[in-house]
């Protein structure tokens, strides 16, 4: 399951973990039954592009063409040049599928996007308020005559997507026709180019394992595998980037570049846009050719030809991760005995466990990132009562603060800065039209993150600058209790996140509250902010030492407020009285929670102890960092917000203990004398 599927799991409320952004800009909706039709200025006239597409469809002998909203790597963020669904329909939401027949054009999308679709599509397009593949195939069965072909670009279909279409269409005698030459691209004359940026190699200071070591490690997993694969095919963009310690700039927010890798026991074929590879990088990839570590550079588009060619060799077997391999490559791996599948490739499962350097630098990145978030919260506390700031200006401010930190590489996703009822909307990010003024009367939620050369961050804090209601305090405290309950859990190595996920909900469930999204996701080292396959879902892999995940319970009251508390944690060994090989979480996000919203009377002693220990860590690490950066006002703010909750009782306990000791010592002295 790809990320976008994940956020639709179970519910179309779909407050997924991905928080893809919706700009619910103001403006009116189209009215296609008015005469003439009413079209707001936000719609795109798609008449000519549809006409051109239909001509191509006829020449390819298909009577319907499916246009998914994804790219060939099933990426979470797609580049503008991959926004084919948006180009054809005008609709720019992040989830949907378009289908064009010779006389109709229809978009399927979920409830988050219905209003947006009505504002952006012209009357050439119908809107189907559904997203299931069976709804699309039912429609096709009604609209397309038997034995006609339905065309699709196999690069834009996951294996699972293809199988769902095929399962539903083949019994109806409709034929799916794979057309690797994308028909939208043929009519998209001003399709955006790939950004001109060259690939970069990570500096040595952030790398522990060279690409040669990683290649050997993956090859060892191949030879150790009982099914004896001879090659691994890498399709997700972070897989190739990780293997070679390279980064690029081809998609927004993620430092990825278009690529595939075919790694065999003695060859390495890297498919990229070769003009983006500098001479220096070629040397980097070619300096160890004498050791069977020799990268053959091939053009990105050659991957199918190469794979097809490799499949003609006898005795080969290609190992793929089915979650990220597109159907265009999968369909070439035949016959079946030449195929080995697992949900995730060995690269994704290996990458999930950070090495010591990656752990250290990812922690470091979170220290600098916390400076930026502390600066935001401190500033808001000061300026919100003046009544001039908005969701937009706050989002801008935190991005500015991050950009001043060392090794900053921009935001890791579009900042969610949401006040009052806006915070209760799934996936909300402010735009000029929707941005609310920040006031002391509303709760405010900010979910943001940064890319740094050493790490990727993601943190959410919810605050109130005035007087919260009892309900708001209780809900916030229970969300915090959920965060703490997971964070302080000690568990045997290899436990799955899904088996402890309810700890994040328990305090909410007790009073009949809940949240409609996932509880956490992996994060990377200057990589994706939602890094699979780590997390708390049933299809995530078991937790091991050295993995990083977010923990992010929440609570949302429609038309009123939204609460989410998100921290990134690293999995570390736990020392238990009897057992070995137990693990726990250590929080690496270092920003205090809003004290005003915490009702300590609801919390257990253990929860308060955890909180005080966490605040002690913030004081230690952030104190040193804020000193280093000469930020005295920020340091004062941080100390004020991290005063221990249990200090009163603790110091009483300590002083009575020291009294006893003094008395004892005195008595001893007396006895001795
Ligand atoms: C669309 O236009 C028709 C005809 O003018 C009108 O009856 C209908 O109320 C309009 N629909 C909306 C949603 O405005
Ligand atoms: C859309 O473009 C076509 C072709 O240029 C034109 O004939 C048509 O009037 C336009 N439709 C609208 C609603 O502007
Ligand atoms: C178009 O496809 C149909 C159905 O598969 C087939 O019968 C027909 O021969 C094809 N026509 C051309 C020109 O390829
Ligand atoms: C490395 O050298 C080999 C042998 O000369 C050549 O085939 C290959 O294309 C080179 N690779 C790169 C990345 O320059
Ligand atoms: C939003 O408003 C600001 C300030 O008026 C302006 O600079 C900016 O371009 C606007 N952004 C958009 C997306 O309209």
TrEMBL record:
Gene Ontology BP annotations: proteolysis
Domain Creatinase N-terminal per the UniProt entry, residue ranges: 49-169
Domain Peptidase M24: from-to ranges: 361-571
Membrane topology, as annotated: Lipid-anchor; GPI-anchor
Enzyme class: hydrolase
Similarity comment text for this entry: Belongs to the peptidase M24B family.
Name recorded for this polypeptide: Xaa-Pro aminopeptidase 2
């Amino acid at each position: 399951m790809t990320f976008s599927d994940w956020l639709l799991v179970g519910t179309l409320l779909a407050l997924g973990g991905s928080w893809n952004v919706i700009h619910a800009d103001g403006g009116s909706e189209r009215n296609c039954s008015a005469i003439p039709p009413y079209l707001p200025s936000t719609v795109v006239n798609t008449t000519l592009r549809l006409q051109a597409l239909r001509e191509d469809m006829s020449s390819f002998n298909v009577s319907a063409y499916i246009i998914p909203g994804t790219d060939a790597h099933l990426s979470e963020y797609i580049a503008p040049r991959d926004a084919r669904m948006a180009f054809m329909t005008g609709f720019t939401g992040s989830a949907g599928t378009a289908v064009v027949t010779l006389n109709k054009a229809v978009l399927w999308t979920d409830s988050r996007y219905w209003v947006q679709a009505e504002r952006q599509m012209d009357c050439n397009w119908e809107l189907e308020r559904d997203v299931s593949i069976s709804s699309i195939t039912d429609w096709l069965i009604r609209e397309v005559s038997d034995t006609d072909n339905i065309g699709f670009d196999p690069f834009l279909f996951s294996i699972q997507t293809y199988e769902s279409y095929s399962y539903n269409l083949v019994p109806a005698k409709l034929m799916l026709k794979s057309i690797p030459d994308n028909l939208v691209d043929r009519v998209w004359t001003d399709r955006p180019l790939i950004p001109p940026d060259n690939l970069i190699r990570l500096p040595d200071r952030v790398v522990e394992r060279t690409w040669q070591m990683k290649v050997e490690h993956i090859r060892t997993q191949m030879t150790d595998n009982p099914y004896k694969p001879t090659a691994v095919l890498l399709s997700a963009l972070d897989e190739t980037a990780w293997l070679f310690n390279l980064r690029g700039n081809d998609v927004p927010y993620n430092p990825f570049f278009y690529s595939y890798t075919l790694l065999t026991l003695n060859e390495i074929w890297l498919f990229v846009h070769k003009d983006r590879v500098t001479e220096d990088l070629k040397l980097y990839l070619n300096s160890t050719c004498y050791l069977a570590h020799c990268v053959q550079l091939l053009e990105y588009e050659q991957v199918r030809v190469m794979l097809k060619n490799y499949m003609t060799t006898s005795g080969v077997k290609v190992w793929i991760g089915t979650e990220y391999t597109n159907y265009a490559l999968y369909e070439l791996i035949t016959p079946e005995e030449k195929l080995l599948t697992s949900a995730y490739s060995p690269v994704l499962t290996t990458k999930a466990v950070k090495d010591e350097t990656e752990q250290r630098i990812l922690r470091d990145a979170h220290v600098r990132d916390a400076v930026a978030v502390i600066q935001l919260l401190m500033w808001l506390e000061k300026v919100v009562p003046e009544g001039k700031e908005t969701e937009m200006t706050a989002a801008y401010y935190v991005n500015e603060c991050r950009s001043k930190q060392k090794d900053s590489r921009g935001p890791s996703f579009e900042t969610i800065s949401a006040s009052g009822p806006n915070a209760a909307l799934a996936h909300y990010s402010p735009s000029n039209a929707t941005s609310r003024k920040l006031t002391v009367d509303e709760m405010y939620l900010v979910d943001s993150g940064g890319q740094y050369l050493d790490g990727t961050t993601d943190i959410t804090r919810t605050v109130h600058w005035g007087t919260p209601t009892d309900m708001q305090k209780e809900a916030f405290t229970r969300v915090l209790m959920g965060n703490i309950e997971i964070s302080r859990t000690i568990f045997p190595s290899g436990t799955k996140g899904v088996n402890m996920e309810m700890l994040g909900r328990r305090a909410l469930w007790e009073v009949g509250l809940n949240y409609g999204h996932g509880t956490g996701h992996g994060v990377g080292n200057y990589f994706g902010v939602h890094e699979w396959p780590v997390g708390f879902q049933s299809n995530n892999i078991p937790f091991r030492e050295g993995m990083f995940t977010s923990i992010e319970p929440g609570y949302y009251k429609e038309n009123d407020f939204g609460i989410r508390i998100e921290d990134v944690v690293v999995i570390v060994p736990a020392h238990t009285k009897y057992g070995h090989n137990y693990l726990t979480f250590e929080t690496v996000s270092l920003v205090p929670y809003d004290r005003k919203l915490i009702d300590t009377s609801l919390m257990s002693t253990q929860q308060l102890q955890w909180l005080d220990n966490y605040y002690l860590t913030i004081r230690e690490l952030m104190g040193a960092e804020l000193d280093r950066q000469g930020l005295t006002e920020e340091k004062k703010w941080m100390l004020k917000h991290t005063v221990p909750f249990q200090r009163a009782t603790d110091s009483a306990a300590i002083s009575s203990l020291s009294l006893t000791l003094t008395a004892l010592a005195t008595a001893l002295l007396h006895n001795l004398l």
